[in-house]
Write a structure and sequence with these properties.
Radius of gyration: 25 Å
Low-confidence stretches: 1-11, 300-305
Number of strands: 4
Shape: elongated
Strand content: 5-15%
Distance between the termini: 19 Å
Strand order of the largest sheet: 1-4-3-2
Largest sheet: 4 strands, mixed
Mean pLDDT: 77
Structural class: alpha+beta
Number of helices: 9
CATH class of the largest domain: Mainly Alpha
Length: 305
């Protein structure tokens, strides 16, 4: 006995459109930053361009994963291909960590052995402002979708990092223009590298939670069990399992012991409906599966929850 989640949500084609627009903006700004880095000699612009290059690659992965996730379920993959989004997010997290290490190394090298050539702060500032505006638009486009898709969430975090990185480049450019302190460029590059790490680790942690089928963050299994036990006709609830297919797609299953009289009176369907409604309304769980058992039923299961 179960209740199925609606077909929308993470498999919404609008996610692919948003990712496509974000990819176009990211790729365009990346090219502008590469040209700007060459013309100005700015390591920070080059680091931000490298960041945006991996973000563009990650957005391509996200688009592919989202397209795969949109494929319908079949007899072999009964939940469909929604986990493809999680695998895409895993690739994103790994790429971000590798990128941060590379940028940090280059920044330290520049600080230890400053380049002889001066950095053209004025042009650097113009290019950084263009990057900031483009990233702001991308964040606005992805803002709503990232709340329900782990893959779009990964892309959103990457764009957020780009936006903050562009802001750091702007600050460095202003410092160079006003004071001539060219090391500000390398410091901004190091800041960008440090900025990447926590969000990459956060995304990786979220991926691990999904892949290990742990309860979603913030979900209190004991609270759900107690809430279900208060339903009319319910004697006990055990073997409770909560996991998620991807971000925003929690799945719930449990064995529910009901009064024998409730079964005799034909109230099992009403009890099931109330339990499903309880999960949907109070805990935002759309897909739930229950095994109804009469009081006194002995469940031969080595692991009871």
């Amino acid at each position: 006995m179960h209740d199925h989640a609606p077909a929308g949500g993470i498999r919404d084609a609008s996610h692919r459109r948003l990712l496509g627009v974000a990819l176009g903006l990211t790729a365009t700004v990346m090219v502008v930053q590469v040209v700007g880095a060459i013309l100005t000699g700015s390591l920070a612009l080059l680091a931000d361009a490298a960041h945006m290059f991996t973000d563009a690659a990650a957005l391509v992965v996200a688009l592919i994963a989202t397209a795969i996730a949109a494929r319908p379920a079949d007899d072999r993959r009964t939940y469909g291909y929604q986990r493809a989004e999680v695998l895409g997010a895993l690739v994103n997290a790994i790429v971000l960590i590798v990128l941060s290490l590379g940028v940090a190394f280059e920044a330290v090298q520049r600080l230890l052995a400053p380049a002889d050539a001066e950095v053209q702060g004025g042009l650097m500032l113009v290019v950084a402002v263009v990057g900031l505006l483009a990233n702001a638009v991308s964040m606005w486009l992805l803002g709503r979708a990232q709340k329900t898709s782990i893959n779009v969430r990964g892309a959103y975090l990457e764009v957020l990092g780009d936006l903050i990185g562009s802001a750091a480049v702007i600050v460095a450019a202003v410092v160079i223009v006003t004071t001539g302190f060219v090391q500000a460029d390398a410091i901004a590059s190091l800041f960008i590298a440090v900025l990447i790490v926590p969000r990459a680790i956060g995304l990786l942690r979220e991926v691990v939670v999904v892949l290990t089928e742990s309860a979603p963050t913030g979900v209190q299994v004991a609270e759900i069990r107690q809430h279900l036990r208060q339903a009319e006709g319910v004697v006990d609830v055990h073997d409770v399992h909560v996991w998620q297919l991807t971000r925003g797609a929690p799945v719930f299953s449990a064995h529910v012991v009901v009064e024998e009289q409730a079964l005799a009176d034909g109230r099992a369907a009403r009890i099931l409906a109330s339990l499903q409604e309880c999960l949907a309304d109070h805990f935002d769980v759309e897909h739930s599966t229950f095994q109804i058992e009469p009081a006194g039923h002995v469940e031969h299961d080595a692991q009871h929850a």
